[in-house]
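Schema walk-through. Below, the input block comes first and the output block second. Nothing else is stored per chain. Lengths vary across the set, and this one has 76 residues.
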Amino acid sequence: MRRDTSGCVEMCRVASRCVKLRQDASSCVEILRDASRHFGMRRVLSRHVGMRRDASSFVKTRQIASRCVEARRDEH
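--- output ---
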């Protein structure tokens, strides 16, 4: 029985590692979401499924923002 219990302990350790890996993976997803808000990350976004639309809307928002900046410069 001792051998079986030691195997179970080892399985528990592996399981806890898997949980940690999952947590790391979820934090990576959060990092990607944050990255999508910053410049120069369109290439990263395009590699992931379902993120292309977000990237294109982000680009449009950037274009609008740059136009606003230009308009303010013209006012001054």
